[in-house]
Write a structure and sequence with these properties.
Blueprint lengths: L7 E4 L9 H4 L3 E2 L10 H5 L1 H6 L5 E3 L4 H13 L3 H15 L2 H9 L8 E10 L2 H6 L1 H9 L4 E3 L2 H7 L9 E11 L2 H14 L3 E4 L2 E5 L2 E4 L4 E3 L3 E3 L5 H7 L6 E12 L9 E3 L4 E6 L2 E10 L8 H14 L7 E12 L5 E4 L6 E5 L5 H16 L19
Parallel strand pairs: 1-7, 3-15, 4-13, 11-18
Antiparallel strand pairs: 2-6, 4-6, 5-6, 8-9, 9-10, 12-15, 12-16, 13-14, 14-15, 17-18
Helix pairs in contact: 6-13
This protein binds flavin-adenine dinucleotide (FAD).
Flavin-adenine dinucleotide binds next to β1, α1, β12, β15 and β16.
């Protein structure tokens, strides 16, 4: 819209609906989340992640054969050369996330949901931090500003945590969104106020300059951008484009009327869960579940998060809770799909934000709109092109 084009946004649900992954995430503007899940550490600990009851990774065993075509290349990407390249290419998208969100929302009502501040990584003890030493060295190399707290600093700041957690590394100059839902709604309002059109409709296919909707209604467009999260795969299949993407399902429990709110978000590293203060609620969001995109939420995932709450913040009390599940759109190389189709002149892609889709969203939007508007930039899109999946 800001580039002067007429834009129609099609979505089968309202913007801000809980059916969107963007509704229920942990809200972190995670500039330093540049280490992909597929790291040498994951491969080493795979038996624990797959088979332990305490693991934050869940798998529906009957889904395992269907997961393999994604899982095998995903694990291969933990090899040093690929791992290092992925980090470099993720960093280019994440590092200035707070500035990108501020620029996107300037003079809009969405800006009030952006909080600048630190994010605290919480560990059981210093030996656990030592195990992640190489990850910290990478983050240092990329210039992130962080500090491993002394015992004294930890106990004076984090006395609301249980004895299970005794160490923290604080990352400064980060941020978080205090209501992803209201943020989306405010962005949609801005879009409409600039003249954008929103139509609630399911897209079934695309052909040249036409978007075909479920009721067979056809919309003509000079340029078509597919940005439908994990469901983009289906639309790409219809236009004979490959992508290796899987739903890394995640869950949240939002606690309402809580007895205590931490001042900034915490990431509980061994449990793969983030705890984010959001307005007057506390959101526990995370874990990873491979059960297929369409499977219903399994109650045991919520039970697991509930047990974590007691394990992490035993004295916390609350009166109400909301439960939610969403689908992280995760490619097998942890990089988004961004750029233009090689074979269809008018078709563009911007999806696959995996664990950092909120963090990188404004940058993906800016890069793809520059491309659509034929603006020259010196950003190299090659690592993110859909055509990398053609082989
Ligand atoms: C538990 C959890 C915690 C997370 N925490 C963070 C975090 O702290 N920070 C961070 O940066 N990221 C986080 N993420 C990741 C982030 O939420 C996602 O990467 C991001 O929301 C993906 O956005 P998206 O717009 O691509 O997908 P979605 O938000 O899922 O949107 C896709 C849209 O496409 C629409 N659609 C699909 N198919 C069609 C069709 N055929 N026709 C019409 N519409 C269609 C859907 O209705 C939907 O509205 C988290 C994810 C989870 C699950």
């Amino acid at each position: 819209m800001r580039g002067g084009l007429a834009v129609t946004l099609l979505d089968r649900v309202d913007i801000g609906s809980e059916k969107q992954t963007s509704y229920g995430n942990a809200g972190l503007l995670a500039a330093s989340s540049i280490i992909p899940l597929s790291s040498p550490g994951l491969v080493k600990n795979l038996p624990f992640y797959l088979f332990s009851k305490n693991s934050p990774l869940f798998l529906k065993y009957s889904y395992f054969p269907k997961l393999l075509p994604w899982l095998i290349p995903f694990l291969k990407n933990s090899q040093k050369h690929n791992f290092t390249n992925i980090i470099k290419n993720l960093h280019q998208l994440t590092y200035d996330t707070v500035e990108q969100h501020i620029a996107l929302t300037k003079n809009t009502k969405a800006s009030k949901f952006i909080n600048k501040g630190k994010i605290s990584m919480i560990f059981r003890d210093q030996s656990e931090i030592l195990k992640s030493k190489s990850d910290f060295e990478i983050r240092k190399k990329y210039g992130f500003n962080f500090k491993n707290l002394s015992d004294y600093e930890f106990s004076s700041e984090y006395n609301f945590l249980s004895n299970n957690y005794n160490s923290a590394v604080e990352f400064y100059d980060h941020g978080w969104i205090s209501s992803p839902q209201k943020y989306l709604e405010a962005l949609k309002k801005e879009f409409i106020s600039l003249g954008g059109m929103f139509k609630k409709a399911e897209v079934t296919s695309i052909s040249n300059n036409e978007v075909i909707l479920k009721d067979n209604y056809i919309i003509s467009a000079d340029k078509i951008l597919i940005c439908s999260g994990v469901w983009s795969k289906k639309l790409l299949k219809n236009i004979k484009h490959k992508v290796n993407i899987e739903a890394e399902r995640g869950f949240h429990i939002v606690l309402k009327k809580v007895s205590f709110l931490p001042p900034n978000p915490l990431m509980i590293i061994d449990k793969k869960i983030a705890i984010t203060p959001m307005e007057d609620t506390l959101r526990f969001a995370g874990i990873v579940d491979f059960s297929g995109v369409d499977a219903p939420a399994n109650k045991s995932r919520y039970d697991y998060i509930r047990s974590l709450i007691k394990n992490i913040m035993p004295s916390l009390s609350w009166k109400e809770e909301d439960l939610w599940m969403g689908q992280r759109p995760s490619t097998s190389d942890s990089l988004p799909v961004l750029g233009k189709s090689k074979s269809l002149e008018n078709v563009y892609f911007a999806f696959g934000g995996q664990h950092v889709g909120l963090t990188i969203g404004p940058k993906l939007g800016k890069l793809i709109s520059d491309l659509i508007l034929n603006k020259k930039t010196n950003f190299n899109l090659d690592p993110y092109l859909q055509s990398r999946f053609n082989n």
